[in-house]
């Protein structure tokens, strides 16, 4: 469950592309085991911030620590301590289920023996033992997404970043996916997630909402609903995001 | 009244995968009709068949009385189709794209301005920008203009709001409402269950089949069970506890609450409260609620799975 140990600490993060400020003085913390929802309209600057937190892009300024590591100087170490999954790309379609697991776990330096042991457990848990040697391309989308998440946390990272992980997935599978997220959070893995489904925002412990490169609100879903006198997160989101001055 | 779109026993397979299984559907003139379902439901296959881009394995369909296979040329003149993937020319400007589509249909932008004006004014400031350099919301508006420029009688929109943020989604539905007043028959596919309520009638689809076909209120009225909403401090623990309850029928997360149905006809809530208390959850709020489209979809899709 949630602890007071900070696993992400962001102070005054700014990122500029030429004269355009994509991230404007962001400051926030995320705690161990927390499910943190990172919301914002298209173009609000979510992807830019996420890339910086994953060590894929340098900030223009600011102090940012992820898993206790500095995003300027310790990027390679940082990458080893996080997991990442997106809807667009996660697993290799033409590799089998086991080949994908072996590939990802191998990149993170796990031994083949550990990989074999752990993957047997995982496939049992996901009810995918029969599909071990099937190509990913043959699996239904829902299974793929659940497997992709499990592969992203296979090396037991401190934090997993999920970029719209459930787009297009049916409502039953979407909930099964959130079961896996809750379970990971209970095991102490911090979950940093973006989504366009506002009901999913309510599954998060805390939620931040970005508008025009700034964090306009950050609180528990309950706190946000009270503050904006809204019946659900959809209403909170629409109120905040409509303030946007974003022009082409 | 005659149907603008009439579909009879339409089937389509790709190798071993049957994407559409004997679909029957009639859509009336001027309807705003929703195809609601996840990826793999068959929505795109159905659109490609109706847009005369694919041939069916069996069955037939007619649009405004024209047979989908025999009269495909007629259909292409009366149909506007916006595919799920952005399919305009990225290196042509906004205006060049619109001009291109007008010319292909042997018409001019000026002659059709009434049809697209409300949408066009929003993208006109960027008319000299290459389409590939537009934001997602603007691309979508341009694609809609291009699909409308020949004044189609029927408009097919394949997941226009997927991956689009909540603000742009609500703007898009406003535009559709405006188009509906012009008398166009609109069929829109979406994986977002909440968008069903914005349609006149919907077909809930999964794995190539129609699970239910009705107005949103009709679908909700057909939800058979009593539905209860539970709230507690630890939602996940609540979910696990309810899942382990001997009389559970279904239990699903919904935002910060859990939606529950029971296998028994009469549910004694105090029994459930006692049970949860015995599991250490003291302060649980329970109330009976009306089902939403998503509750209905999940109930129907599970019935469907069990029957197989």
Automatic annotation (TrEMBL), chain A:
Q: Which InterPro entries match?
A: AAA+_ATPase, ABC_transporter-like_ATP-bd, P-loop_NTPase
Keyword NADP assigned to the entry: answer is no
Q: Which PROSITE patterns match?
A: ABC_TRANSPORTER_2
Determine if tRNA-binding is one of this entry's keywords.
no
Q: Which UniProt keywords apply?
A: ATP-binding, Nucleotide-binding
Q: Which Gene3D superfamilies match?
A: P-loop containing nucleotide triphosphate hydrolases
SMART domains this protein is in?
Answer: AAA
Provide the ABC transporter domain boundaries. 8-237
Q: Spell out the molecular function terms from Gene Ontology.
A: ATP binding; ATP hydrolysis activity
Q: What is this protein called?
A: ABC transporter
Source organism: Labilibaculum manganireducens
The taxonomy runs:
Bacteria, Pseudomonadati, Bacteroidota, Bacteroidia, Marinilabiliales
Automatic annotation (TrEMBL), chain B:
Keyword list, A-Z: ATP-binding, Nucleotide-binding
- Where does the source fall among the domains of life? Bacteria
The cross-references to CDD domains, in alphabetical order and at most eight, read: ABC_DR_subfamily_A
The family database entries (SUPFAM superfamilies) matched by this protein are listed as: P-loop containing nucleoside triphosphate hydrolases
Extract one GO molecular function annotation from the record: ATP binding
All residue ranges annotated as the ABC transporter domain in the record: 5-232
A Pfam family it matches:
ABC_tran
Q: Which PANTHER family match?
A: ABC TRANSPORTER G FAMILY MEMBER 20 ISOFORM X1, ATP-BINDING CASSETTE, SUB-FAMILY H, MEMBER 1
Q: What is this protein called?
A: ATPase
- Species for this entry: Labilibaculum manganireducens
